[in-house]
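quick one, 244 residues, struct below
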Amino acid sequence: MIKKDEHFKDPNARIEDFNFGAETARVFDDMLDRSVPFYDEIQRMIGEMAGDFVQPGSRIYDLGCSTGNTLIALDQCLIEERVELVGMDASEEMLAVARQKTFHQPLKHPFTLQRQNLEEGLIIDNASVVILNLTLQFIRPLYRDDLISRIAAGTRPGGCLILVEKVLGEPSLLNRLFIKHFYAFKKRNGYTDMEIAQKREALENVLIPYQVAENRALLLKNGYSACEVFFRWYNFSGFIAIKA
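---
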């Protein structure tokens, strides 16, 4: 049973930086459903495009796999593909939830769940598809070029990287409007103004979004030959980049 996210329900005199520990892991699925627009549709699109680029005998990596939702979705839609699924996350508490899910709902494909800080010496091997679903935005900008370069280096020719991110609107006016409409979306899903404000403060130094053009440039200069936006909703965007 999914536990309701009440992480920021009570007023706090001092807001700590957002983290992916046990308290967040416990309610993370509800947090995603109520905070990410078209979350189920994004998962479906990721599965479709993974099917377009997966290569037999290769690996599909979900970096920042959290509670395993994307891995489970991939396992269900890539039924006939001979592929190994690899989930990586820096949070042992998130991985514990993912292990519990895959215990109760065993995957058809071979898979591994690994604890990995993506800022520290990531090794990708024999990948045809790599997924960063709302993950890169939590990597400090200093490490993003190296991370994307490492991913590209471990990806087969013809493979792809699927990236979903919160983004900054390039004109400041539109950026403010997009954020306003995003907060209205969260309110429609039951979050109060106080919850929204306290989470915004907790994320301020943790989630650092780029503009669409900056994300595209990051991918194209670090090993990918083509990049296209496949999803956009106000300040959320999905990219697919192809390795030649």
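The longest strand covers residues 155-168.
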